[in-house]
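Notebook entry, structure prediction.
Reason for the run: the old model in the group folder had no record of what sequence produced it. Starting over properly, with the input documented here first.
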Amino acid sequence: MSQTAENLRELLSLARLLRRFAQEQTQDNHQALFVSTAMALEARARLLATIAAPAPVDPVRDQALHAPVNCLV
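New structure, fully documented this time:
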């Protein structure tokens, strides 16, 4: 797995954990902090996912790159 995929997985895992903490009854009333931090982590993961997205496939270019080559001529 690539480093970017691992980072995305870790960010989203931490965001899920923070949201779960926010849902639990806590005595220190940090629910808003947990939720806002989870939202920031999810936004960061979304940004990293769009940056790491592969380029669209160009079928004409791929066909030219993978065309057979006749080495006997």
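Summary: The mean pLDDT is 83.
The old model has been moved to the deprecated folder.
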